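hey can u run this one w/ adenosine-5'-diphosphate bound, need the structure tokens asap thx
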Amino acid sequence: TGPTIVAGEILVEIMASERGLGFLEPLALTGPYPSGAPAIFIDQVAKLGGGAGIIACVGRDDFGAINLERLRRDGVDVSAVSVSDRYPTGSAFVRYRPDGGRDFVYNIAESAAGRITLTDAARRLADGAGHLHVMGSALSIAGLKEIVAYALKSVRARGGSTSFDPNVRKELIDGADGAHFSALVDGADLLLPSGDELLAAAGVEDEGQAVAALIARGVGEVVLKRGAAGSTRFGADGSRTDCPGFLVEEVDPTGAGDCFGATYLTCRRLGIESGKALLYANAAGALNVTRLGPMEGLAGFDALDRFIAGTDRAGT
Ligand code: ADP
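ok here u go:
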């Protein structure tokens, strides 16, 4: 018991509303939309009725207010979000290349999110949490590392659970952060990698071997995200469940992984069995990519049930 908590960057996203154009001419833009992987994740936890809290730092500005309003409205505890008078809330600008790829301009390193520190409010939230979810960004910001280390110790000491989404570049894993990365993997109740991240986390080349290596390190279950193809769950007992993706038109892929992870975790914390949790998570990820804006497609159980009933899946 106790809420699920996350720590990390809150920002806004502004995107080109015209697709496939260059950037030398002015583009029509849409946004700002609330964003930041931890914010997306925790908002989805709250939408499903799971207790939720976030440790973050925003600027005293409209971009910060947009996020805090959304999180509060959806039921996230924002008591551990500090507001900086000195640094602004970060932003990301996204445009879509003619080949369908995306280019980002980030303004985060010098923003409030990069200045986050372990405050008393953050300690209080961590000390009451039942589950800590950690994401890759926790490895690259000094203050965030300290917060995550504190929360990890506090949650584990009280018998709480942890999950880790290793959405982090290989260079970071190999560098000075290796020990920190290992501490997050070892004994995680739930690991939520994408394909190549799975191999990187385990340090081997083969999917089956990677899962076995992670389970041997005390990981409780591994849920692999496969984009439009869906997902696969590997249990500590050697079981494997494949869940084909829902057939949708992808409008904006940002946020799918976090929405998926939050849904799987929250279903499990609410006592829903793993196969059903995987189905809900696939639905949440798929529904999320049909909406423009990272947090605009987040959905509670009613909307997910309607989506599942009305949408085909690949190969079914
Ligand atoms: P990440 O962004 O972390 O790499 P994915 O892109 O794999 O995560 O997306 C997470 C989940 O969301 C997938 O496992 C799938 O269930 C769902 N999803 C993502 N993109 C699509 C898509 N285009 N069509 C259907 N489902 C999708």
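Residues 199 and 210 are 6 Å apart (CA to CA). anyway lmk if its weird
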